[in-house]
């Protein structure tokens, strides 16, 4: 991080925010000192052994086969609407969940049922929406997955859709809109599913959302990017921790009259001296790879995405968009008056080494205070000296070993999928994934077609049918100079290998490969993954919002015979009827792939 990060700390050392929490983040309290620690589990209805998960463990229970049946329902009501806030001091139009950015925390125990009613109150102008619950397996409920044109029709303005699913995995995740690049406009929020942990800790600090931030609306960004001769390189304006950061308003473009306030306020965290804390890191951004550190502190990683791992210690955690890491931090550096910078740097990993990240201000900071530290003073700690210019890969697969071991099964089918960027006939720069630049049909989700026995799809939907295969291997070739966080819905895939150039056929620890739901493929490199089938239709795409908008998206039909037999609730069809009725009288301008 070295030099530049030091400069930025000087620029942004104001820790007493000039704007109210309401003005920066609406109804969200994340990143403030009044945001409470989380309980280690929610107490109602515990099963035997005092824990809601009874005797199930993270090291001895196969979570894909067994989870607690708590019978507990966690109900949430979300209203999505437009709003005006200034997360970093620059005021802009955003989209909010219950008036908050980031949106409200969803919290449950492993095995609880989560029910969320989403009301689309996005008006002036109206937009469709859908909300995706990132990383959940949706066993037997693929229609609750929230991918437009894949599992459902968009929720019509003024209407609601009620999502209902079991939290059959536990750990840290997030929800986000999955309609166009809408989530980068603010429809994101954290989710914590409490579960067993072999690694012990005292305090659950809760979610820490890391996200690149743009001063333009997602609509304007996508339209510019996908205009004839538009640039595929989108540049973020800032980097946020729990939705907050300062901005240097002198950098606002001449002629831009939006109010901008310097030193709007950064996030603050309190740690208890001598105690071990669990931090739940989430890259909820649109594009940037995050490099997270806390000055002077080691981080012990205990989970990657929804997969508990054998603990390993590191100074920096790398997260591509969509990825999470649960880390333990012990407050044992200095006395109880100590304060430290928490940092998250957008990494310049698109292109050659030393290419700067596509960001005007790539360095996010937050203040970490031990018990007795004065929270009106800026920390003075020094950054770890770790260069991040060339890092665009996740931690070495040799060190990310799942706590619950699963040997790699034999693959019964292998699919190679190439990533490339090209210009179409109108000079629009788009992405191709396995030969196709995807465009969704909002009116006709793949899942509903498949359920009716129709398995012939237009090429531009980019659907692959894997029939009844018992384990499917995917070899991703990245023929582009950018790294991509590859995400498969409905599964934790095995990561067989990852590296530059072509795959040499070797597998890292086939006795127990890393599993997760997002993995970075490096520039001009390969990523090999494999999944055991979960019946349904599942999106497999690059999680960079701009790349998915540009067509970098596919859908997998998995176990079609089972899909045909599914009894999909009529509310799913009803959402389509509402959408088709709405679009018969309102023109929906599908500015991108749709997802
Ligand atoms: Cu975080 Cu397609 O999802």
Automatic annotation (TrEMBL):
Residues 83-197, 207-370, 449-561 form the Plastocyanin-like domain. Keywords: Copper, Glycoprotein, Metal-binding, Oxidoreductase, Repeat. The keyword Oxidoreductase applies. Gene3D superfamilies: Cupredoxins - blue copper proteins. The keyword Repressor does not apply. It holds the Pfam family Cu-oxidase_3. One of its GO terms (molecular function) is copper ion binding. InterPro entries: Cu-oxidase-like_N (IPR011707), Cu-oxidase_2nd (IPR001117), Cu-oxidase_C (IPR011706), Cu-oxidase_fam (IPR045087), Cupredoxin (IPR008972). Belongs to the multicopper oxidase family. This is Cupredoxin. It comes from Rhypophila decipiens.
């Amino acid at each position: 991080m070295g030099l530049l990060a030091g400069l930025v700390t000087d620029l942004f050392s104001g820790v007493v925010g000039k704007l109210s929490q309401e003005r920066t983040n609406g109804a969200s309290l994340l990143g403030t000192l009044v945001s409470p620690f989380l309980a280690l589990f929610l107490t109602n209805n515990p099963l035997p052994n005092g824990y809601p998960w009874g005797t199930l463990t993270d090291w001895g229970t196969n979570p894909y086969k067994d989870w607690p049946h708590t019978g507990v329902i966690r109900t949430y009501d979300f209203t999505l609407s437009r709003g005006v806030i200034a997360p970093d001091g620059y005021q802009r139009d955003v989209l909010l969940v219950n008036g908050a950015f980031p949106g409200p925390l969803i919290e449950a125990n492993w095995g609880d049922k989560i029910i969320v009613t989403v009301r689309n109150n996005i008006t002036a102008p109206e937009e469709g929406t859908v909300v995706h619950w990132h990383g959940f397996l949706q066993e037997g409920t693929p229609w609750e997955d929230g991918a437009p044109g894949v599992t459902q029709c968009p929720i019509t303005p003024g209407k609601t859709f009620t999502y209902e699913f079991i939290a059959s995995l536990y750990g840290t995740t997030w929800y986000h809109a999955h309609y166009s690049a809408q989530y980068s406009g603010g429809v994101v929020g954290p989710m914590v599913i409490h579960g067993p942990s072999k690694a012990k800790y005292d305090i659950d600090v809760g979610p820490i959302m890391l996200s690149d931030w743009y001063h333009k609306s997602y609509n304007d960004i996508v339209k510019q990017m996908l205009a004839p001769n538009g640039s595929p390189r989108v540049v973020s304006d800032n980097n946020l921790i729990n939705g907050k950061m300062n901005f240097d308003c002198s950098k606002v473009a001449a002629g831009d009259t939006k109010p901008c306030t310097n030193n709007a306020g950064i996030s603050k965290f309190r740690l208890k001296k001598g105690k071990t804390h669990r931090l739940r890191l989430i890259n909820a951004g649109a594009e940037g790879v995050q490099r997270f550190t806390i000055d002077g502190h080691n981080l012990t990683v205990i989970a990657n995405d929804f997969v508990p791992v054998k603990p390993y210690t590191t100074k920096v955690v790398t997260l591509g968009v969509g990825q999470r890491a649960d880390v333990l931090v012990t407050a044992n550096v200095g006395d109880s008056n100590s304060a430290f910078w928490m940092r998250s740097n957008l990494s310049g990993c698109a292109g050659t080494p030393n290419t700067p990240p596509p960001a005007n201000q790539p360095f996010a900071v937050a203040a970490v205070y031990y018990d007795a530290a004065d929270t009106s003073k800026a920390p003075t700690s020094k950054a770890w000296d770790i260069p991040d210019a060339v890092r665009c890969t996740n931690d070495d697969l040799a060190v990310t070993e799942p706590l619950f071991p699963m040997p790699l099964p034999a693959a019964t089918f292998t699919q190679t999928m190439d990533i490339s960027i090209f210009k179409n006939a109108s000079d629009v720069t788009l992405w191709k994934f396995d030969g196709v630049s995807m465009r969704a049909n909002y009116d006709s989700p793949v899942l509903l077609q498949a359920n009716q026995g129709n398995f012939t799809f237009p090429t531009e939907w980019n659907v692959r049918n894997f029939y009844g295969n018992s384990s499917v291997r995917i070899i991703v070739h990245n023929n582009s100079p950018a790294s991509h966080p590859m995400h498969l819905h409905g599964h934790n895939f095995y990561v067989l290998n990852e590296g530059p150039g072509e795959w040499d056929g070797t597998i890292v620890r086939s006795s127990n490969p890393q599993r997760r739901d997002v993995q970075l493929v490096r520039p001009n490199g390969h990523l090999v993954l494999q999944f055991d089938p979960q019946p349904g239709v599942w999106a497999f795409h690059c999680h960079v919002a701009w790349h998915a908008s540009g067509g970098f998206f596919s859908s997998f039909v998995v176990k079609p015979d089972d899909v045909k037999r599914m009894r999909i609730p009529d509310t799913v069809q009803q959402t389509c009827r509402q959408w088709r009725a709405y679009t018969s009288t309102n023109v929906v301008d599908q500015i991108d792939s749709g997802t």
